[in-house]
């Protein structure tokens, strides 16, 4: 093998590959039978695979294949080379001890001065770490996309650049309508400047704001949302914002019912003493500060006790 391909190695600047950080493999130009055969591997390649050069020279690249090596990728590789096309792909390869690693590699043909195909050179890169983190990121992305929480991301200019499915369903807008839009798209005009001043203050000082928003969806319907907004920092500079919300409609309804029940008399439906005490203070305060007049009168039923005593308390309640 060394004799057969020594001329190829001598005529090509192979020594330059020895210094590369990237793995390099050179094989014969044949693709049938027991070919291609490995005729060169640089130090970087041997370091990745844990093989000595003497163990792989003369072998086929199949010694690096295993259970999870993608056959479709290999079929595409062979087809590209047979049709004199540059190949690039990735799959799993296996080291000497059987440990798998993810490899990204490209293969090009080497031709002599006459244009005759004499070998293939393969540049390879171990992307195991990149592959691992890409898978984790894809899994995280899937969790976020399918979360029941309404999640969106905004850039430093307060424009949406991501919204998950729940957020889109809640707002009624499509992804194309949301991306690049400002949150004012959801503005219901239910909040005053005090509310928004607190929001901006909390984001700048505390880097976090939590509150209940009354928003307006694409069809104009109002809905209540408990939202947490976090400022995303990089080197003490805001580069964006994350928004996480949940449906608060039922809670608002409960609060309104509780407020109504706490302020009204259960029997008559009229405002009770607690509400009267709060209102009279406000009326007096408005009169003292702005001379806003108010009126108060009393009504009393004479001999009402007789109704309860003679007809019973149920009739008294009716009266």
Report on the architecture of this protein:
It is a single chain. With 319 residues, the chain is of the alpha+beta class. Helices cover 38% and strands 26% of the residues. The protein starts with a helix and ends with a helix. The mean pLDDT is 88.
What's the N-to-C terminus distance? 114 Å
Mean pLDDT: 88
Oligomer: single chain
Q: Could you tell me the radius of gyration in angstroms?
A: 38 Å
* Helix count, DSSP H or I runs of 4 or more residues: 12
Physical arrangement of strands within the biggest beta sheet: 2-1-5-4-3
- Tally of extended strands? 10
Low-confidence stretches: none
Instruction: Characterize the overall form.
Output: rod-shaped
Instruction: Estimate percent helicity.
Output: 25-40%
Order of helices and strands: HEEHHHEEEHEEHHHEEEHHHH
Structure class: alpha+beta
Main pleated sheet: 5 strands, antiparallel
Describe the SSE topology:
Layout: H1 2-11, E1 23-28, E2 38-41, H2 43-49, H3 53-56, H4 71-82, E3 87-94, E4 100-111, E5 117-126, H5 128-145, E6 150-155, E7 160-163, H6 165-171, H7 175-178, H8 193-205, E8 208-216, E9 222-234, E10 237-247, H9 249-263, H10 273-290, H11 304-311, H12 313-318
Defining traits:
10 strands, 319 residues, five-stranded antiparallel beta sheet, 38% helix, alpha+beta
